[in-house]
């Protein structure tokens, strides 16, 4: 499931643990552990934001990030992108 979560993160501009948990039929706790493992492996990096998302869209109506006081955003690293590319070849 780790690689599948990594691929999903690369395809989604914005996601939540709940969204990933629902997609993979699991819970937030499992997704949190997967995210920690992906960080440990160097496949994603974590950035803590205190003033909204980094998509540059401002505070859009209906966006779950618009009312967030502090969010964590994750970026797929070059290593993560290589892993995704290599697993797509198989």
Describe the structure in your own words:
With 90 residues, the chain is of the alpha+beta class. It has a single domain (2-88), classed as Arc Repressor Mutant, subunit A (Orthogonal Bundle). 47% of the residues lie in helices and 13% in strands. It contains 4 helices and 2 strands. It has helices spanning 2-11, 17-23, 28-41, 78-88; strands at residues 44-49, 71-76. A two-stranded antiparallel ribbon has the order 1-2. The longest helix is centred in the middle third of the chain and has 14 residues, at 28-41. The chain starts with a helix and ends with a helix.
Describe the structure using short key phrases.
two-stranded antiparallel sheet; 47% helix; 2 strands; alpha+beta; 90 residues; Arc Repressor Mutant, subunit A
Structure summary:
The chain has about 90 residues and is of the alpha+beta class. The protein has helices at about 1-10, 15-25, 30-40, 80-90, and strands at about 45-50, 70-75. It has one domain (about 1-90): Orthogonal Bundle (Arc Repressor Mutant, subunit A).
Describe the secondary-structure layout:
Layout: H1 2-11, H2 17-23, H3 28-41, E1 44-49, E2 71-76, H4 78-88
Antiparallel strand pairs: 1-2
Helix pairs in contact: 1-4, 2-3
- According to DSSP, the number of beta strands is 2
Proportion of residues in helical segments:
40-55%
Number of contiguous helices: 4
The number of distinct structural domains comes to 1
Spatial arrangement of strands, main beta sheet: 1-2
> How far is it from the N-terminal to the C-terminal residue, by CA?
16 Å
CATH superfamily: Winged helix-like DNA-binding domain superfamily/Winged helix DNA-binding domain
Output the helix-strand order.
HHHEEH
Kindly state the mean pLDDT as a whole number? 82
CATH class bucket: Mainly Alpha
Unreliable spans are none
Looking at the overall shape, the CATH architecture is Orthogonal Bundle
């Amino acid at each position: 499931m780790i690689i599948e979560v990594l691929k999903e993160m690369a395809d989604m501009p914005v996601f939540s643990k709940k969204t990933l948990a629902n997609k993979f039929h699991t819970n937030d706790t499992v997704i949190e552990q997967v995210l920690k493992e992906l960080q440990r492996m160097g496949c994603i990096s974590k950035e803590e934001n205190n003033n909204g998302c980094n998509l540059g869209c401002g505070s859009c109506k209906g966006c779950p990030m618009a009312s967030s006081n502090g969010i964590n955003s994750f970026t797929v690293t070059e290593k993560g992108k290589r892993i995704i590319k290599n697993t797509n070849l198989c």
